[in-house]
Amino acid sequence: KAGVTQTPRYLIKTRGQQVTLSCSPISGHRSVSWYQQTPGQGLQFLFEYFSETQRNKGNFPGRFSGRQFSNSRSEMNVSTLELGDSALYLCASSLGLVGNEQFFGPGTRLTVL
Amino acid sequence: GEDVEQSLFLSVREGDSSVINCTYTDSSSTYLYWYKQEPGAGLQLLTYIFSNMDMKQDQRLTVLLNKKDKHLSLRIADTQTGDSAIYFCAESGFNSGAGSYQLTFGKGTKLSVIP
Predict the structure, then answer these.
(1) Measured CA angle at A7 (ends A106, A87), to 5 deg
(2) Rounded to an integer, what distance in angstroms lies between the CA atom of residue A64 and that of residue A46?
(3) Disulfide check for A91: which of A23, A45, A61, B58 has CB 3.0–4.6 Å away?
(4) CB B87 within 8 A of CB B108
(5) Residues of A with CB under 8 A from a CB of B
(6) For A37-65, what is each residue's pLDDT tens digit?
(7) How far, in Å, are A22, A23, B31 from residue A76 at the CA level?
């Protein structure tokens, strides 16, 4: 079974631009969660999608948004990029059941110049 | 809010045992996890323990849970240079507002194995 895939793996943008990151979950998984990882803040939860609906949201500004498609693939978008948005963005998929395991993708490394 | 604390660094000699400790605050946690992250990679689930268990062993890995003290530890026996990585503790707590479980991670413990 293929793992979680994220595209692109690396991205360089400039301040003010917007970016879209993509995540394909493990086949059969209906829940996709997104995390931002930075050296200073560690792993911070962005949001979770389940069956095309946002089920949970972390404490991030409205510039961060996401969506999930009927095939469970998910995208996250960051508008009006700031230098502080430079981070590793990780996607995790799970069956979406209570207490189940999350499997992580390799991440997208975003650098904002 | 919920918080997970870990020490940031641990250094051990190859062949010794490593013990990585973690404390958490959410008493409603159902599962507690240990993830491993190697440079340039995502997180790899190592093992997890259900909150009503005290101990779980999986080959070289032993997880101990003290639910009363909200303390979790990961012991790696016969530590190898390939075990050098960052280890994250995470707890799965119920977010009543969202009606779903959410993982909260510690900041990670960087394990360095000295040959």
Answers:
(1) 60
(2) 8
(3) A23
(4) yes
(5) 4, 6, 33, 35, 42-43, 45, 48, 50, 55-57, 90, 92, 98-99, 101-107
(6) 998 888 999 999 999 999 888 889 999 99
(7) 7, 8, 27
Q: Name every chain A residue with its beta carbon within 8 A of the beta carbon of B50.
A: 99
CB B99 within 8 A of CB B66: no
- Nearest Cα to B32, choosing from B69, B70, B84, B85? B70
CB atoms within 10 A of CB A45: 20
The tens place of each residue's pLDDT in chain A, 113 residues long, gives: 679 999 999 999 999 999 999 999 999 999 999 999 998 888 999 999 999 999 888 889 999 999 999 999 999 999 999 999 999 999 999 887 655 788 999 999 999 99
Q: Is the dihedral of CA B81, B83, B86, B89 positive or negative?
A: negative
Residue B108: predicted pLDDT = 95
CA-to-CA distance for A44 and A55, rounded, in angstroms?
16
